[in-house]
Batch of 2 targets.
Target 1
Amino acid sequence: MAAYGAVLSVSKIIHPFWGGRLGNTVKVFGTTLTSRRNKTLLTRENIPPPAKYGGRHTVTLIPGDGIGPELLSHVREVFRFSCVPVDFEVVHVNSALETEDDINNAITAIRRNGVALKGNIETKHTMSPSVKSRNNLLRTSLDLYANVMHCQSLPGVQTRHKNIDIMIIRENTEGEYSNLEHESVSGVVESLKIITRNNSLRVADYAFRLAREKGRRRVTAVHKANIMKLGDGLFLQCCREVASGYPDITFDSMIVDNTTMQLVSKPQQFDVMVMPNLYGNVVSNVCAGLVGGPGLVPGANYGHVYAVFETATRNTGKSIADKNIANPTAMLLASCMMLDHLKLYDYASLIRNAVLTTMNETRLHTADIGGQGTTSEVVQSIMRIIQSKGQLTSEL
Amino acid sequence: MAGSAWRSMLTQVVGGAIRRPALSSFSRGMQTVTLIPGDGIGPEISTAVMKIFEAAKAPIRWEERNVMAIKGPGGRWMIPPDAKESMDRSKIGLKGPLKTPIAAGHPSMNLLLRKTFDLYANVRPCVSIEGYKTPYTDVDLVTIRENTEGEYSGIEHVIVDGVVQSIKLITEEASRRIAEYAFEYARNNQRNSVTAIHKANIMRMSDGLFLRKCREVAENYKDIKFTEMYLDTVCLNMVQDPTQFDVLVMPNLYGDILSDLCAGLIGGLGVTPSGNIGANGVAIFESVHGTAPDIAGLDFANPTALLLSAVMMLRHMGLHDCGNKIQTACFDTIKDKKVLTKDLGGNSKCSEFTAEICRRIQDLD
């Protein structure tokens, strides 16, 4: 670990002189050292993320566009108020630019810190097709292969369906989001969907491990293998292989159109679901809608080495930006997931309980779930609850 | 000499032109429809629909055909020639559920029909049925799905062992065709807006092309509002408030998922009508549920899906009054809750349900 830090600091001095060359050496060194980290992670000995400078963690913060900046500033406010030992390194990404320098800086920052909290970066699809989605670039470069979302019915929120408790694990790097498109003949565009055995195996493995860890009974694989026989067939086969290693967990599969139909009529039948990228997008949005909307559900993207936390449905919310009506719940719960990842469990439960109390008992709701509160009112309420419960807080 | 030859040729041509339509669809004012009963519960629900149409005195002459795949010359699978010939003549078809046996060697029957008649648009109007309670009320939207290309082109390869690639094909021609159909449908059925659904932030070129074509077609239909929405946003909003949507047009895969999602909102595939529109004026209306082999022949089946598809067919043919009459009778029967089949929550048999609808139609007259 010390050697890694030393190499990094040396590179910081020499980098400006030697430009890219030494940077590559650091990358090689970096990969060998991180692969050592990898090996111990795979043997299930979790190394806590490096806590530098007197026990305080540094986390990369990417404000993004739309409601991202204001929600993340609320998160920082709550953290500061609760004296959470986390410092944020803010990296801005300008979605209007065509160059990828901004996002590469962000990726380097996340590699440095290991953990990030981000808002959604807008993708203007009116720009040329060579300008790729920044969020997608981030996920694939950092190899964040599993997107985890936990949809739970909250007692304080009015919804059509009750008692929903579904965990969705979605493959995050390949599938339809491979960004491989070409126009072979004028007027005919081909888009490639890639499914690989390795990625399918590792996301299925993640799903089953998570299911076992959380004491879940059933994992459902969502696919369309009756039409895409080779692609989704491979995914399904990998899931079955992994399932055979977990005899205590029931495994079944369901076709994606039937899944959506079942979700809107009887969502209580689902437990844990695992699926490729695009179906994950559809199913996670349907589930988020079922429990009350995009403002309530946090999401996490995990890789072997890095973790990035954000809202589950990844909305930019341009139409409600800067109006003080956005729902801070999703982002705050995502930050609690991040605190859990950093092993700061006490702070995580403190903030989470405050958020849920405001939602369920005080019933202070923002407009998206039918209330009249503003974002700042909700955040103030959360901080008041933290003050009454917690031991050490700064001035309100 | 030349004059008389010209005159005779002219009469021949004109006579032929007048004679031809009389042979094909109009004989004593009746329109011919090719009926494909299908498998499992198919025959019983087809009989139910025929009975109801008879009670409503609809000007329809049914021609029953079987579409079991046969191997044609050259080894390619095709539908029986008499079925094809009947469809080509009548241009309108009504189809029950078809089973696709696994490992039968022949491709799915639905796929075969789609390819044979170039059925490029799948239309599914989803309207909440009063009397069949679901958590969603006031649903009234139509999903129009491109049916020939997109993710379902079936082009897949194993590149290396463990890496599979599926190709999603989007063409200008197909996108333009489906967009035009969507706007025409909106205009003909007095709908206010058309929403194109896409994922152009991720699939820039393919969905970008689809969107561009939709925008171009929208220019010619200024009376109809055109909006674009991401697939995930639509899913999110659909389950929270489905009343904000009107006509939705989208490529194949999204259409598959969304049309089933909308069917789930109104109560499932047992009550959802569906129509496939093809080139050359061909249209096949079908019920999209399965063959239900476990209840086949036991008079438990629910004919609602096939009946509503048949009503869609009547509207397509311009017989709106007849269609409305049958639909009202059907909805009233369900609203009344006295005679309902098992899947709708009642205890009656299919024949009783059918008889009740026939009775209501006769009362309406």
Target 2
Amino acid sequence: MDDTHDTSFIVDEVSNITKEAIEATIGSQSYQQAKINTWTSNIVEAILNSLTKLNKPFKYIVSCVIMQKNGAGLHTASSCFWDNTTDGSCTVRWENKTMYAIVSVFGLSI
Amino acid sequence: MNNFIVNRSSHPFNSHEVKQILEQIVCPAINRQTDYDSLKCIQLSKDLSQIIKDAMKLLNYDRYKYVIQVVLGQCHNENLMMTCRCLWDIQQDNYVSYVYSNEKIFCAVTVFGLFYY
């Protein structure tokens, strides 16, 4: 009987939640300076709400970077000091013709 | 059966202390780069996150888990927006964010400290 399903960080599940949130917010949009603030907030809040509904004993950190496509390079890296057996992370990269979005979700068990 | 539950940290996360450490690590590392080189920056972002993680461990906060995120990019007249939201314990957990840039490279570092009960 596998009861770790309810208390472990499942990367695929979180990845799907993240992709849906990104698609719903900026899926069909082009980069607009005025809206970028609202978009990042909406993506992050939507993901956090969906994660809360999973009802798992986790603390979550959701971070979103949206960048205009202009030829510049961007690198992100993260390192974590946590419990490898219970905690996990998921990073989703998304792009369209005018912008890049990188969303990272970290889940730490309590 | 061991049921010892800890609710409060005896040494809470001090943002000011962590921010000073970030300044000391990030500024020299970025200034050492003469130009934006994508291969070097790949390694630099990974190295920075490891160095900062090790520095956080030396601070000896008891029962804290850390997540360090480093975003490094080329300054190319671009616009970038970074947002984060967290679901955590507001009394125990905290974060520190530090951004540094010169003419060629910018670097945004965020360190999250979460208490483990």
